[in-house]
Design goal:
Blueprint: H1 6-10, H2 17-22, E1 29-31, E2 34-36, E3 43-47, E4 54-59, H3 63-82, H4 85-101, H5 103-114, H6 118-135, H7 138-141, E5 145-150, E6 153-161, E7 164-168, H8 178-187, E8 191-195, H9 202-214, E9 221-223, H10 228-236, E10 240-246, H11 249-261, E11 265-269, E12 274-278, H12 284-296, E13 306-312, H13 319-327, H14 347-362, E14 366-369, E15 388-391, H15 398-401, E16 408-414, H16 417-426, E17 429-430, E18 432-436, H17 440-449, E19 454-457, E20 473-474, H18 487-493, E21 495-503
Parallel strand pairs: 7-8, 7-10, 8-9, 10-11, 12-13, 12-18, 13-16, 15-16, 18-19
Antiparallel strand pairs: 1-2, 3-4, 5-6, 6-21, 14-15, 17-20
Helix pairs in contact: 4-6, 4-9, 5-6, 5-9, 6-8, 12-13
The chain binds nicotinamide-adenine-dinucleotide.
């Protein structure tokens, strides 16, 4: 039967973790600045990945609710677009301060629903907050261009909002990725419909509450829920002009194709298989620590996780030391003191990861460190996979070809830097890659020749700060990477360019004949 909705229907704020654990409540939609309980007939049960206890039910919002959300955003748009940019900036200042003040609360919601450690969840919030903070400079970021192109004639080019835009988010960064969209889309004058991941919408709900407190008018930010049905509604609703998607390739390629066919702008960041090339001349301790942290942190559920180690030349001799460091990581509930990584998102995900490990074994690889079957004492029912290292991997193996998205590091040996570069470039994904070396010229070769979006030189997870853009290449980004997230391309994505050419003659015209040729 349904969970208690009495609190949800009257609540003015989103419940705390404590309230939610003692008495789970259904997740509501957020429309017109109100938490509105859904009349859904289909619900998605959301379990704490560390215990598999029910935390909430997320509605498959009804068709009518989805229409109401779009109507609310459409109604809000004319006044919001004409709200002065300084007034929008003031609201953003408040929003930023509120996110910082609610940092722990947001992080706790992420740990409860998504499973990552509390310390790591704080990083999830911070990376999103930094996008919002950077967007506070919108008053100088959005200036246009002007040129006097002839006597008394000038052309000016400036940017206007699109209208209603939508964001479809993945489960792995419940705060950061909604915040790749909300601040930039709204600061530029759009109204946003956000569809968080149905697996962990809590952080987005808190952000919605904070946006209201910051002063965003009703309808500027609405949150609706659901899975594929809600996505199809967004794809086909003519009032929605643009879609921001972050997630896997299956959903993302479909969304890009159908959204584009419907005439919408689509930005879509997809899956990954990020390689780290380790050269014998590198700072060994630094490299080994960086790789272990980036392979297993967040249980490998980061799109920039370093999941593939390319050991150049004799660096393969370092494998035992690598395994020693991985073994030392503490796998535990995300709220536990000293936990290094938490559970994976779902039992299905655990099974998928375990099956991929088994496939590697079957296809001839070696399981150097086996994290299957691990269980922390206090959490026997969670979705646990401890750090796993697979060696003697070759590019034909399933574990190399598929994104594992779990705490599994696969290792390949190559003799030279050229082989390492060829391996990365032959992989169909192109999100990120890292190189560990002390040689400037080696790093420079790698940087020039490699076909990925983000490159780290002695940096394991080179996610760009918000003054830059999150870039991608090959299958890791739909549409060839034309519309990347945040930074200047982010501002451009959420705005339409307008170009005005005007003539203001200082004297009256004296000719009485019309000109019919193009001016030369
Ligand atoms: P996912 O693709 O399963 O889900 C993402 C969103 O798409 C969700 O909101 C979900 O409801 C929706 N969706 C899922 N299946 C759908 C379908 N068949 N039709 C329509 N909509 C559908 O991704 P996830 O498991 O939540 O996230 C993990 C994936 O996201 C990984 O592949 C990871 O690499 C990727 N990711 C990429 C980046 C990046 O910037 N490149 C960042 C984070 C995550």
């Amino acid at each position: 039967g349904p969970l208690a909705t009495a609190t949800a229907s009257t609540a003015t704020s989103y419940p705390t973790n404590h309230e939610r654990i003692s008495s789970p409540v259904d997740t509501a939609n957020f429309i017109d600045n109100q938490f509105i309980p859904s009349r859904a007939t289909t619900w998605i049960n959301l379990h704490d990945p560390a215990t598999n206890n029910l935390v909430t039910r997320v509605p498959q919002s009804t068709e009518e609710e989805l229409h109401v959300a779009v109507a609310s955003a459409q109604k809000a748009f004319p006044a919001w677009r004409t709200t002065s940019i300084i007034a929008r900036q003031q609201i953003l200042f408040k929003f930023v301060n509120l996110i910082r003040a609610n940092w722990d609360r947001l992080a706790a919601s992420i740990t409860l629903e998504q499973g990552k450690t509390f310390a790591d969840a704080k990083g999830d919030v911070l990376r999103g907050l930094q996008v919002a903070e950077t967007t506070c400079g919108i008053t100088t970021q959005l200036t246009g261009e002007i040129l006097e192109v002839a006597k008394d004639m000038e052309t000016r080019s400036y940017r206007e909002p699109l209208g209603v835009v939508a964001a479809i988010c993945p489960f792995n960064f419940p705060a950061m990725i909604p915040l790749w969209s909300i601040p930039i889309a709204t600061a530029t004058g759009n109204c946003v419909i956000l569809k968080p991941s149905e697996r962990d919408p809590g952080a987005a709900m808190i952000l919605a509450e904070l946006s209201r407190e910051a002063g965003f008018p009703p309808g500027v930010i609405n949150v609706i829920h659901g899975a594929a049905k809600t996505v199809d509604f967004i794809l086909d609703e003519p009032a929605i002009k643009a879609i921001s998607f972050v997630g896997g390739n299956r959903a993302g390629e479909y969304i890009f194709t159908r959204g584009s066919a419907n005439g919408k702008r689509v930005q879509a960041n997809l899956g990954a298989k990020n390689h780290a090339a380790v050269l014998p001349d590198c700072n060994k301790n630094h490299a080994l620590n960086a790789i272990v942290g980036a392979a297993f942190g967040a249980a490998g559920q980061r799109c920039m996780a370093l999941s593939t180690l390319v050991m150049v030349d004799r660096t393969k001799e370092w494998l035992p030391e690598l395994a020693e460091r991985a073994k030392k990581l503490n796998v535990n509930g995300g709220f536990e003191e000293g936990a290094d990584l938490g559970p994976v998102i779902s039992p299905q995900s655990r099974k998928r990861i375990e099956d991929l490990i088994a496939s590697a074994e079957k296809e001839g690889a070696t399981i150097l460190l086996d994290g299957r079957g691990y269980k922390p004492e206090k959490y026997p029912n969670g979705n646990w996979v401890a750090p796993t290292i697979i060696t003697n991997v070759t590019p034909e193996m399933t574990c190399y070809k598929e994104e594992i998205f779990g705490p599994v590091l696969i290792c390949l040996n190559v003799p030279t830097l050229d082989d390492a570069i060829a391996l990365v470039n032959n992989n169909e994904y192109g999100n990120g890659a890292a190189i560990f070396t002390r040689s400037g010229s080696t790093a420079s070769r790698f940087q020039k020749d490699i076909e990925v979006g983000q490159i780290g030189i002695n940096i394991p997870i080179p996610v760009p700060l918000p003054m830059f853009s999150f870039t991608g290449n090959k299958k890791s980004v739909a549409g060839g990477g034309a519309n990347t997230f945040y930074g200047k391309p982010g501002l451009q994505f959420y705005t339409q360019q307008k170009t005005v050419t005007s003539l203001w003659r200082s004297e009256d015209a004296t000719h009485s004949r019309a000109g019919v040729v193009m001016p030369t």
